[in-house]
Structures are given as C-alpha cells and as structure tokens.
Amino acid sequence: LAQLEGPSATYNIPMAVRLTGALDVAALEAALGDVVERHEVLRTVFPSVDGEPHQQVLPADSVKVPLAVAPYSGTGPRARRRPGVDLSGDPTFTELLTRVRERSLGAFAHQDVPFERLVEELAPSRSMARHPLFQVMLSLQNNAQAVLDLPGLDVRHVPGDDLAARYDLAFTLGERHDADGAPAGLHGTVTFARDLFDEATAERLAARLLAVLRTVLAEPGLPVARVEVLDDDERHRILTEWNATGHTVPDTTLTGLIEAQVARTPDAVALVDESAELTYAEMNARANRLARLLASRGVGAETAVALLMERSADVFVAPTSVWPSSRSTRRT
Predict the structure, then answer these.
(1) What count of other Cβ atoms lies within 10 Å of the Cβ of residue 214?
(2) Which secondary structure element, helix H or strand E, spans residue 137, and what is its range?
(3) How many CA within 13 A on the CB side of residue 240?
(4) Neighbouring C-beta atoms of residue 320, cutoff 10 Å
(5) Residue 29: which region, alpha, beta or left (left: phi > 0; alpha: psi -120 to 50)?
(6) C-alpha radius of gyration, the chain, whole number
C-alpha cells in the first residue's frame, strides 16, 4: 500500500493504554513477540514482483518487535480528527433481514479464502480514489472487550485521535448494557472521507439511518420500499423547492429553438466530444447537409429514420437533421 499511495497511517489501528507502576519491559516485549508469532497476518507483507504485488508470510524468527519505552508524567493526552442485497419481490424488513443473514452465513463458509484470491477472481476495476470491493461498511462490535491485565500495573484505556477514513463511509456500532448486564441499546460512530462528505452531510446520513431503524423496529412487517428515508423538510425541498422549474416557453418547435440559438450565438461552442468541438454555426451546417441528403433519398413526413452510431457529437446532430427532413429541407 505504501508503494501505491506513499507512507500513510490509513491502515494502522492505533490503541493507547496508560500504565501506572513498574513495567517489566522484557516480559511485555516477549508477549508481543508471541502474539506476532501466533498470527500470520501480523507477519504478512506484499512485495512487488514484475510490477505485481504478492502475499508473503515472513518466518516468525525474522520478525522482531522492538519496544521503545520511556517514562512519562503529566496531565496526559488531550483531544484535538457487503455483498449486494436482494430486494426483489418488495420484501418486508423481516424478510430482508432473513436474506441478509443467509447471505452472510454463506459468506462465512468461505472465510478462509485469501483476500488476494477474492480480488483476483472478482477482478474489480481499480481506482486510487476508492476501495476496490466496497465503499460503505457497517460493523457491529459485540464481542467482549479485551482486558489487558499486567501484574503490578494499573491499566486504563486512553482515547486516541480520530482514525483515518479507510472507506467512503464506515458505521461502527457497539452494544450497551445496563448495570445488570441486560442489553440497553446501541451506540456508534460514523467515519467519513472528508474529500467526499462534510461534517453536516455525515450527520444527516447518521440521522437518516437512525430514522430508518426506528421505523423498522416499530413495524418490522413494513415493506422496505415504504420505509421513509427523507424527513418532511427534505421531501419538500426536493419535490417543491428544487422542482419549481415552471416558466413561460415560446410557442415554437424544437428546431425553431435551435435555429434561434444559432442566430444569437453562431460562434459559441455547442457540442464537445473526444475528437472535436462544434460551434452552433458548425453544428447547424452539418445538420443541414445531412437533412438535404435525407430529403434527396425520399425522407419526408411520417418517414421512420433509424440511427445507429457510436457516441460522438453526431449523436445530437443526426436527430436535428431528421426532424426538419420530415417536413422540408432546412435553409442554410
């Protein structure tokens, strides 16, 4: 990854703990080394061979975990930053949840497939701007929190800085429990890419997710197509304010409007494709030539004209030639 985007902490998972007391540095270093030895993923690198990355698991004895320790005193740190779902048949939320569960369990049956094999088989289009397989992730952290118990030390977790966004959007949820250990709801965070979303947009997305969850929890038999995502203000803005496009139009034809624009701005750019730019005058001249050709071949009123062409400026020029040809030859 560093070879693609340069040195970056994007895929690091930071964790901070505060240790108070006498620390056995050698014992802690040996414990970390044991973890690295037991988990191959911590010893996996991706060297480039002939320009292609390949997975390589390093031998345990070749990977050392140097532990730099320095005493610290003070006030401490301060805060400063899946697969597609089948919606056919207009399912209810309960039915959709069942489908997602079945798809997820089916995926777990193949969880031993190496990630590089998955990417190779799917062959997704690659882009430096996004993750190759998915852009939005939802995760539920419902495992018991790991406890770091070191003899003679008081260990407490210290909140770290904001994580770098690995995906466009990531919703991370965790379970809450009351004093008796009974479930007491969920809490969560939203991590978003700042080059795609601003904070207000991310907050609106989180609010919409909460609104959807409240709706389906209150009525799980509701078809998902009827679950409202927008609130009243957003719906009014989209359907009324943004859609207020009514205005007076002249009593003329489409070809008449085009010819009027040609007369007003003949030298302005009208069409752009990969090979050329056409001004309104050039577009009009090209359309007129084709219109005369069609008329010479018998194209007139009620004549059906089929068009078959590659994407280019002529995709627009050709229809503007057919319309007047069905009546009479256009004037130059």
Answers:
(1) 10
(2) strand 136-141
(3) 6
(4) 21
(5) alpha
(6) 31
H or E stretch covering 239: none
Instruction: Return the amino acid letter for 107.
Output: A
Helix (H, G, I), strand (E, B) or coil at 266: coil
- List, as one string, the DSSP characters of 164-210: PPSSSEEEEEEEEE-TTS-EEEEEEEEEE-TTT--HHHHHHHHHHHH
Amino acid identity for residue 81 in this structure: R
Closest CA to 155 of 283, 20, 332: 20
Question: To which residue do tokens 């624009």 refer?
Answer: 261
Q: What six digits make up the tokens of 249?
A: 């139009």
pLDDT tens sequence across 251-276: 888 888 888 999 999 999 999 888 88
* Res. 95: pLDDT tops 90: yes
Q: Which of 19-23, 35-39, 41-45, 234-238 has the lowest mean pLDDT?
A: 19-23
Which residues does residue 157 pair with via DSSP β-bridges, in sequence order?
A: 17
> Per-residue pLDDT tens for 38-68?
888 888 887 877 777 778 888 888 887 777 6
Which residues pair with residue 192 across a beta bridge? Answer: 169
Query: Model's pTM, two decimal places?
Result: 0.47
- Per the structure block, which two tokens stand in for 310? 């590659």
For 50-101, the three-class secondary structure string (H helix, E strand, C coil) is CCEECCEECCHHHCCCCCCCCCCCCCCCCCCCCCCCCCCCCCEHHHHHHHHH
At 104, is the pLDDT very low, low, confident or very high (cuts 50, 70, 90)? confident
Q: C-alpha 10: how far from its chain's center?
A: 16
Q: What would the 3-class secondary structure string for 271-325 be?
A: EECCCCEEEHHHHHHHHHHHHHHHHHCCCCCCCCCCCCCCCCCHHHHHHHHHHHH
Taking residues 303-314, what's their average pLDDT? 85
